[in-house]
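Need tokens for this chain, all 65 residues.
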Amino acid sequence: YEDTLSYGVGAEWSAFISENLFEYLDAPIVRVASADIPVPFATSLEQEFLPWNRLKDALEMLERY
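Here are the structure tokens for all 65 residues:
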């Protein structure tokens, strides 16, 4: 999911699940997405834009939950 955190489809999914399926959750909803900036064309900057490190951190946090 390479969309930005704000105003993306992931936010809508999170809201729907939180509002309608909360009792089925085993852990909190965590959204991990790209930074709220335009997609850079430089490869070095693109690696910072993509959320791989944030995804790893979020997965580790959920695993500890």
